[in-house]
């Protein structure tokens, strides 16, 4: 589980984006992160992923303060968390290479990485694309490849930034089901989205990011 406590953040060039934001991302549930453009949803998720260090406040992962943990421990904690950007960066090579990439850098041998990458691709209905070059894919296909790459490493916490944005109706529904199943199997899933309808369908709880703060509430309170 990840806990952000009274987190403050601003970029070099601007005002405070987060001014005392707190939230929890728990295993076994889907958390919807909603709020207006520029409110700080992406920033918050990158802090939860251990990519950005807050200027004030605490980030706890499984009870350990992430940024004061020794390097090796911090790396181990961060590896349980995967963040998928709205505009994913794909490596050169095939779709299979891309989905297997996270596993390869975690030290799995080629065969095992391939087997797990194929499984993840099947889950998202993109197994027919495995031999295609990643550079020729549509935006929606790229998004699914990035999500498959994340699923393949079996993270304890999965953070997705606008995962539905470029997907057609059928793929949105498929992803919705996959995320629900992931949570039911114990993964903690957080989804930043502008689509409150999808958020309400998939999430157990919601967080509204606004004015630098994060307000946690029920689906009824924040989404409907
Ligand atoms: N790399 C950066 N450098 C400077 N400012 C940034 C940077 N990234 C984000 N910001 C600013 O921080 C604020 C929060 O941005 P963030 O992307 O976290 O919001 P968001 O809620 O995810 O927005 P959206 O819904 O539009 O995706 C915005 O004002 C944005 O302009």
TrEMBL record:
Instruction: Identify the InterPro entries for this entry.
Output: AAA+_ATPase, ABC_transporter-like_ATP-bd, ABC_transpr_CbiO/EcfA_su, ABC_transpr_LolD-like, P-loop_NTPase
Q: Supply the alphabetized keyword list.
A: ATP-binding, Nucleotide-binding, Transport
Task: Report if keyword NAD is assigned.
Answer: no
Name its cellular compartments. Answer: Cell membrane
Where the record annotates domain ABC transporter, the positions are 2-224
**Superkingdom per UniProt:** Archaea
What this chain does, per the entry, is described as: Probably part of an ABC transporter complex. Responsible for energy coupling to the transport system.
- What is the protein name given in its UniProt record? ABC transporter ATP-binding protein
Instruction: Name the species this protein comes from.
Output: Pyrodictium abyssi
